[in-house]
Amino acid sequence: QVQIVESGGGLVQPGESLRLSCDASGISFSAYVRAWYRQRPGKQRESVATITPRGSTNYARAVKGRFTISVDNATTTVYLQMSNLKPEDTAVYYCGAPGTAHWGQGTQVTVSS
Question: Tell me: the pLDDT tens digits for 30-44?
């Protein structure tokens, strides 16, 4: 049974940082393109960052230079380091493998003063 679990969300002030983690079991997660998506209030789910099995990364324009996706190859945990957070980054953040049904339940990130 595939299980993907995100963690690390919370409430932060603008300008602060947060790191999200994504752990997968029951799947060779490292063999997939892995991604962080988010769904902001009243918006459709959108891609934030992706990383290929070979480590190539891609970012949405809105987060480029502020967010970093990475993988711990020893544990296959996928991270999203978010810096200089803005109120518009408030969303539920999801980790998973695009094009598959393998997604977590999401973790809430709220950026507010």
Answer: 999 999 999 999 999
